[in-house]
Amino acid sequence: MAPNVAELYQFNPDIAPRDILDAVTIRTRAEIADAAAALEGEVRGFGLRAMVWHDLATMEPTVDADGQPINCRILGWDAADLAPLIAIDDAVRPPWLRACRVESQPFWFNRRGVHTLWENLYLDAIGLEEFDKRAPMKSAIVVPVHMPFGQTSVAIFTSFDPAQTDLSREFARHSDPLARLVQRFMAGYAKVNRNPRHLPTETMLTARQIECLHWAAQGKTDYEIGIIMGCSHAGVRYHLSRACESLGTVNRAQSVFRACQLGYFG
């Protein structure tokens, strides 16, 4: 089934950019397979292979409406190729996946480092000591997608030549169109698969509640927050308690997490 689906969307240099964006757009779960096939065809036209992961926190397989992993069924990867990434204990360690947590723009990597368009000081702290041990590919282009509610998706693009170690030319030519494709595909996939029961409700917090939560997120005690904000210990507890009620949470830690999800502070 997968090869036949992919053939419907072979790369066409004359296709308008908006047409391919529409082709990779997912509006319902039934469209996931066709959108993945469109993505595969376009990426193949760039001379690259693609794999996608909808949630960096779990590295669960991204699946179609039938529950089949699209990395295998449509994008052409073997289970053995994906095993190092599926194992969550190993998936949190590779430098390129750690880089996705602190970089929002496309980058490419090889054993010499993580290469970006702009300097990112956070990437300097990511070590490459275990690159050869943990790298299932010699080099790859990576597109992270940071979405609402703290979800981070990622697409990884590799050469058809597993020995290729330099993708700088491909990155310079294709990073922008790849980023547009991945953003559209992942945003649609996330929306059709979100469970409303797990989503925070839209909440209005006061400026004082946000300030209290902000300092709580920095590890400050109620007493310390009171000194910083110039109010009593009881006042701090009142603001935090009302914030819990507004956020639908049960304690300070959950309130800080929920406020972060909703973007009330960085």
Q: What is the multimeric organization of the chains shown?
A: single chain
Give average pLDDT, whole number.
85
CATH architecture of the largest domain: 2-Layer Sandwich
Strand-pairing-aware structural class: alpha+beta
Number of strands: 5
In what range is the share of β-strand residues?
5-15%
- Percent helix, as a range, is 40-55%
Number of H/I helices: 13
Distance between the ends: 45 Å
The CATH superfamily of the largest domain is known as Transcription factor LuxR-like, autoinducer-binding domain
Poorly predicted ranges: 1-15
Q: Which word captures the global form?
A: globular
User: Which strands sit side by side, in order, in the main sheet?
Assistant: 1-5-4-2-3
Main sheet record? 5 strands, antiparallel
Number of domains: 2
**CA gyration radius, whole angstroms:** 21 Å
Order of helices and strands: HHHEHHHHEEHEEHHHHH
CATH level-3 fold name of the largest domain = Beta-Lactamase
Q: What is the CATH C-level name of the largest domain?
A: Alpha Beta
Describe the fold and architecture.
This protein has 266 residues and is of the alpha+beta class. It folds into 2 domains: 2-196, Beta-Lactamase (2-Layer Sandwich), CATH 3.30.450; 200-261, Winged helix-like DNA-binding domain superfamily/Winged helix DNA-binding domain (Arc Repressor Mutant, subunit A), CATH 1.10.10. 46% of the residues lie in helices and 11% in strands. It contains 13 helices and 5 strands. The protein has helices at residues 2-7, 17-23, 32-45, 70-73, 79-86, 88-91, 95-100, 131-134, 168-193, 207-217, 222-229, 233-247, 252-261, and strands at 48-53, 107-110, 113-116, 140-146, 152-159. Strands 1-5-4-2-3 form a 5-stranded antiparallel sheet. β4 and β5 (152-159) form a beta hairpin. The protein is globular, with a radius of gyration of 21 Å.
